[in-house]
């Protein structure tokens, strides 16, 4: 499968690289994240989301890293090296709040938080920021604690509240902003389930709070097949394994392949419903949100997504796109 754009530049269209965040292992527990779609990146290909070090006190250059193999690699690290860049999400949250509320958000809840990379980035962003990270997958949450939360400065670490709970029933202080990114809520396959989650999110917001979600689609999002993207030392593969046009159910997988021929097959498996934007907007309104906007991505002269999202009521019939939804009272 190879995603393409129209022959003419079309706003919001992407050439197979739909922005996502962190992938996770398959879990049947509500609240665990389903991430990954197509071959995607929110950062420069192959760049690391975390500093791997620089010049030491001696000024000597780093030794060359051994070649990666399936046996020597960590799937969560590979994901972060492949696609994760929560700094972009933080900037988008700030952009929405400046435009909609004329101020900055301080309290943020990351639903389906997984490794909590976004929550940790949020508290690093400003000293006033606080974060609540909610997820049901204890294995991934433990990994994220070691990777992202424990290394935080003490002050920032105190501003992260980690919850091993269901996003629909979690009891915690109301916040300015809730984020359900990486299409995590697609795990709810029926309208009643999805609306119930949206209602729970609305209850978790302050009076002027904002609920942010992302969505993906396009004609080729319904096609079965693989798409790969070579990175430094490995290849990231997005595999649309099965799609049922009658129910909208889709099974997708992420694989990692290495130069020595080894592979981490089905490193992450997602079983979800491929919701459409009209359906998501309707469910948000039925959940009680008074205003629901779709923020569509602009396009460069070359027809690529430019990473700049603006509210609109009209998009192009792209073969692959990503959009954000902004819901509030």
Strands, count:
12
| CATH topology (fold) name of the largest domain | Rossmann fold
The CATH class name of the largest domain reads Alpha Beta
Q: With helices defined by DSSP (H or I, 4 residues minimum), what is the helix count?
A: 7
Fraction of helical residues: 10-25%
Q: Spell out the helices and strands N to C.
A: HHEHEHHEEHEEEEEHEEE
Strand order of the largest sheet: 3-2-1-4-5-12-10-11
What's the structural domain tally? 2
Describe this structure in a few short sentences:
With 329 residues, the chain is of the alpha/beta class. Helices cover 22% and strands 29% of the residues.
Which key phrases capture this entry?
Rossmann fold, 2 domains, disordered N terminus, eight-stranded mixed sheet, four-stranded antiparallel sheet, 12 strands, single chain, alpha/beta, globular, 329 residues
Structure, described:
Residues 1-11 and 16-61 have low confidence and may be disordered. 45% of the residues are buried. The protein folds into 2 domains: 86-217 and 274-328, Rossmann fold, CATH 3.40.50.150; 222-270, no CATH class. It has an 8-stranded mixed sheet with strand order 3-2-1-4-5-12-10-11. Strands 6-7-8-9 form a 4-stranded antiparallel sheet. The termini are far apart. Helix content is 22%, strand content 29%. The chain has helices at 75-82, 86-100, 117-125, 138-149, 154-158, 191-203, 277-286; strands at residues 107-111, 130-135, 160-164, 175-180, 205-217, 225-231, 234-243, 249-257, 263-273, 291-299, 305-312, 321-328.
